[in-house]
Specification:
The complex is a heterodimer. Chain A is of the alpha+beta class. Chain A contains 22 helices and 21 strands. In chain A, helix 1 runs antiparallel to helix 4 (81-100) and helix 3 packs antiparallel against helix 4. Classes of the chains: A alpha+beta, B alpha/beta. The interface between A and B is medium-sized, with 32 and 34 residues.
């Protein structure tokens, strides 16, 4: 598939998300004209761009649906629940049609026909044929966003008000101001019909206007301006320039300039010849073919279009660029390598003790830091788009189950690395399905429990240090600790003798094969879900936590790293080997003398300024050989809200850590989450402190 | 009682028209009458809009009509202190009375507004 087609597919997917979001909004507020416009624009762009890039089936399918949305825009029909549902099935159908182009199963033609028939039935009889299929759907630029219907188009408008317009109380100036509000406007007033004083009727309007307007708001918006005077005034609207064929010859030299450049003609000679040259406008006026005013108006129009083209051209130079994600991944890899090399250079500079080399190393360090931050920021995307995509899931599943559930979101502007967001989708779908199926009760049960009939699922995102916390909360039945214990015992997940806190009981739902649902449903699977969720989140170097109160609801918190590529690490040494702890978790370091260590014995508890802190001996965890030094160090970290120490031989300090995945042999090890290459070329393992604490 | 559209004619035949009210459609008839009177009694009319309080399209149209009529009778119509009235400036701007594109020049010997615009441009250029 060529690059342009790929671009269309990518854009079409984004437009479908926007279309779906607009439709779901319309379901709540059916007369929201902004959302009707959004939906229309998305459909229009899918249709236009589809036709342009050879996705004819999609263009054809979308055509009739666009007609219905045009009627909605014109308020000839109203938004109904049926229309929203049908339009959502349009989204699904287009998705299948798109996937078919990249090897997916072919779209069901009967289903497409059924949808189209239902849409055609919605068109009132008098409007049938209102919009005949065009020979070729309008072509749009591949880079256009959903606002592209709003691609800047230049119109020529002739407005000759009725002579009695002023007497009737309409001020044409207000209409001109409305046009100005639509976009860049050049207006020329014509006064030549103003009579002599003796013939002047004081309440008459003799003035009329020629207007050149560039706007992305479309023809309808212009027509709306004249809606109350269109029957009595003479109004003509024509497209002068559709903005598609921007031709800015800013750098093109004229013939005379080239001749002067080449030395064939002197500049003075050229200028004197040009002075004698008459312009076409002057010739036409001289010959009385056209009056001077008309030439002026035409020149004004030419100037306006040229200015608009220059503006578009300039904007195109600075507009955003769509880059395939793989290229960004490559860039991040290269930056990672650069960070590693820079670390080597810095180390060499320190070793050589050469001021000139040190200065160069510092410059490289600063530049690398800037490049790293910039590259990482390019990969960050807002999680709001993912949140929006779940609205459809909640709508459809709750309807299938006969539950009333609303999805609320907050913190959608929170940014996460693209890879994290991509890999987060499946775990979140699973959790939300669980909320709908097992969490939120049926309306009658909710009413009996004095809860609102409508259940709520709340998705939120917020920053927490180098992590993002994503919380999925519901106000449903909450977890039943007794049922969980019974199930866990029955499935041999725990033995009867074990006593667990309420929080520990809740964590059991993440055990493989655990399910308290009495019946297996199609919605949230067969009890193989939440353990997979946990595994997937941990594969992202994240963690999952659950809090629940019976009868009140459940909150599942996903703690995810901002990025999977480069982190700020804290370099330590154990038995001659180097290890990295995530710097964002490090709170402080304290010394541990041998005599203190001996006194503590095996209790693994430390008294820090009166605070009892448990610690983990990393020498023991990694079975390091040799004797520990006389003076050890305890790195105190925050592990899921608890302060835990890690005993190391030496503390080296903060370190830019380019995360490398572990080889197959090490992948099973839960104590380390990755590795990094140090400046001297040796490898340091990145510690998974959460797992180390649990293992201890 | 002092009129809010008052015409004074000097012995030299030069008239001075002062406007101290709004010139909107409601005043159009009165304004036209005064302009006709001035046409009859003066060979040069200077209009002072410094104390103009409001204006609309009818005001511009009437002045254009008057200018055209004065031109046809080889008389002169001038606006004193052009650009001195914010009210007039605003209505000219809102109506897009772009003097450079005015098609009425062949009817008027001298455009009422063009000079004002050019003066403004010269002023801006010298700043």
């Amino acid at each position: 598939m060529d690059a342009q087609k790929e671009t269309f597919m990518e854009e079409a997917r984004e437009l479908l998300v926007k279309l779906e979001s607009a439709l779901l909004e319309l379901e709540v507020v059916p007369d929201d004209t902004d959302q009707i416009d959004r939906a229309f624009r998305a459909l229009h762009t899918i249709k236009g761009s589809g036709a342009m890039f050879g996705f004819d089936d999609i263009a054809e399918f979308t055509h009739d649906i666009e007609t219905v949305f045009e009627l909605l825009r014109d308020r000839k029909i109203a938004v109904t629940g049926e229309l929203v549902s049908l339009s959502l099935s349009v989204c699904d159908q287009i998705k299948v049609m798109l996937e078919a182009y990249i090897g997916g199963p072919p779209a069901d033609k009967d289903e497409a026909e059924r949808i189209l028939m239902s849409f055609r039935e919605m068109v009132p009889e008098q409007d049938i044929g209102i919009k005949q299929p065009e020979e070729a759907p309008e072509k749009l630029h591949p880079h256009e966003e959903d606002e592209s219907l709003g691609a800047e188009v230049t119109y020529r408008i002739s407005f000759r008000p009725d002579r009695d317009i002023l007497k009737n109380g309409t001020n044409p100036i207000h209409l001109l101001n409305e046009l100005r509000a639509l976009g860049e406007c050049d207006i020329t007033a014509h006064m030549e019909e103003t009579p002599l004083l003796k013939d002047y009727a004081q309440e008459a309007c003799y003035i009329y206007w020629d207007i050149v307007l560039t706007t992305g708001r479309g023809l309808n918006a212009i027509k709306d301006v004249f809606i109350f005077v269109e029957d009595t005034s003479d109004i003509k609207i024509n497209v002068v320039d559709d903005g598609q064929d921007v031709n800015v010859s800013v750098d093109t030299k004229r013939l005379g300039e080239i001749l002067v450049d080449r030395g064939d003609v002197s500049n003075d000679k050229l200028q004197s010849m040009l002075k004698n040259q008459k312009r076409i406008g002057e010739i036409l006026v001289e010959k009385d073919v056209v009056c001077g005013g008309k030439v002026e108006v035409a020149l004004a129009e030419q100037k306006h279009v040229k200015r608009t083209h220059e503006k578009i051209w300039r904007a195109a130079q600075t507009a955003s660029v769509r880059v395939p994600a793989e290229r960004l991944d490559e860039l991040v890899d290269l930056v990672g390598e650069l960070v590693t090399v820079q670390a080597r250079l810095t180390q060499k500079a320190v070793h050589e003790n050469d001021p000139e080399l040190t200065a160069i190393a510092e410059d490289v360090e600063n530049l690398t830091g800037g490049l790293r931050d910039n590259t990482m920021s390019v990969r960050m995307i807002q999680i709001g788009i993912t949140f929006t995509s779940f609205r459809r899931l909640v709508r459809d599943l709750s309807a299938d189950l006969g539950k009333n559930i609303v999805l609320k979101t907050s913190g959608g502007e929170t940014e996460l690395d693209k890879t994290v967001i991509d890999r987060l989708n499946d775990p979140m779908v699973h959790i939300i399905r669980n909320c709908i199926d097992h969490g939120i009760e049926f309306p009658d049960v909710r009413i009996q429990s004095n809860k609102p009939e409508m259940g709520t699922i709340h998705l939120s995102a917020e920053h927490s240090g180098a992590h993002v916390l994503i919380k999925i909360s519901d106000d449903g039945a909450g977890l039943d600790p007794v049922a969980i214990m019974e199930k866990a015992e029955k499935n041999n997940i725990i033995s009867k003798e074990i006593e667990l806190s309420e929080k520990e009981i809740a964590q059991l739902v993440f055990a493989p094969g655990f399910s308290t649902a009495k019946e297996v449903t199609d919605v949230s699977g067969r009890g193989v879900g939440l353990d997979v969720v946990k595994r997937n989140v941990e594969a992202l170097r994240g963690s999952v936590d659950i809090n629940s109160k019976k009868g009140e609801g459940t909150t599942i918190t996903l703690r995810l790293p901002l990025t999977l590529a480069i982190i700020e690490g804290f370099l330590v040494e154990i038995g001659g080997d180097k290890y990295i702890l995530p710097l964002s978790s490090v709170e402080e370091c304290v010394e541990l003398r041998k005599e203190d260590s001996d006194q503590i014995g095996d209790s693994n508890i430390l008294n820090v300024r009166g605070e009892i802190i448990p610690y983990v001996r990393l020498r023991k965890s990694f079975e390091s050989l040799g004797e520990p030094p006389e003076l050890e160090h305890v790195v105190i970290t925050d592990v899921n809200g608890d302060r835990v120490g890690f005993v190391v031989d030496n503390v080296i300090g903060s370190y830019q850590t380019v995360i490398k995945s572990l080889g197959r042999a090490m992948r099973q090890s839960e104590d380390v989450s990755g590795a990094t290459i140090l400046g001297d070329g040796t490898v340091a393992l990145i510690l998974n402190i959460d797992k180390l604490v649990k293992a201890a | 009682m002092k009129k809010d559209i008052s015409l004074r004619v000097k012995k030299s035949g030069e008239g001075m028209l002062s406007v101290t009210c709004g010139l909107t459609i409601e005043k159009a008839e009165e304004f036209k009458t005064v302009l006709l009177k001035a046409l009859e009694k003066t060979n040069k009319l200077v209009v002072n809009f410094k104390r103009l309080t409001d204006a609309d399209l009818t005001c511009i149209q009437l002045l254009c009509s008057a200018n055209r009529t004065f031109s046809e009778e080889n008389k002169q119509l001038l606006i004193q202190d052009k650009g001195g009235s914010d009210v007039l400036d605003k209505v000219l701007r809102d109506a897009s009375f772009n003097v450079l594109h005015c098609m009425s020049e062949k009817y008027c010997k001298k455009c009422l507004w063009k000079e004002a615009k050019q003066n403004d441009e010269n002023d801006n250029g010298s700043r």
